[in-house]
Amino acid sequence: xxxxxILTFPALLMLLYIPSSDPVTVTTSKAxxxxxxxxxxxxxxxxxxxxxxxxxxxxxxxGKDVSYVYFDGDFTGPFKGRASIDGAxxxxxxxxxxxxxxxxxxxxxxxxxxxLGEVTVTLTVLVPPHAPSCxxxxxxxxxxxxxxxxxxxxxxxxxxxxxxxxxxxxxxGSLPEINYTLDPKTGTLKFKAVSKSDEGQYRCEASNGVGxxxxxxxxxxxxxxxxxxxxxxxxxxxxxxxxLLSCCxxxxxxxxxxxxxxxxxxxxxxxxxxxxNYNPPDHLLNGIKS
Length: 290
Known about the structure:
The protein is an alpha+beta fold and 290 residues long.
């Protein structure tokens, strides 16, 4: 065997055992990001390539449709002018609720064996409570049911609710003296049958742990007794009299025209009695005899 062959054979073995470089890989240091509204959000994206020295970086947001956030070296749409990128890590400034969603970082390395790598980062923008909308009935009759409603549609995560009567919290429970039910998730306060003691000023408070709780303005609920005033009594009496008078007039007209069987029968009997009981005068009878 020649010297050249002896020298090249070990070299070939060494080449076979040299580990190959890893293909393009894309990772994130934080897959779920939660930030408060109107603050900055950092979406981490890190990559390693095998050979490519100038990979292509793109960011997309997925929802009902896929839209570009960062494309061809620039930010697009609503992100233009309020975002920056360092390597592949993206920072969004002054985020709002509309920015919440799933973002995809894609890195393309054309010279690598595996040319595409991607990672997903989910952004949740936390929104503190807003003053909830409250519905409180102005007047409820004693013994009737009542329902008070409260809702804050803007807070993230969803708010939970508590009710106050005359600035005192209403408790949730099944105590004997409690005649209502309160659902802290829906904000609904229900009374099965209100009493005079339920009268007062009610307000609802929304909280979600992000910011300070917010309340709606207090609204007064009045409990009334069922009372008949003279106007209602007179109106009922007049209505009853007119109804009775109408019935009498209708019966009289019906009898006069013989519209009903009873009236026709009575009328026929009257005629028959008249015909049967008729007695002619004596002078007529004498004239007939002569």
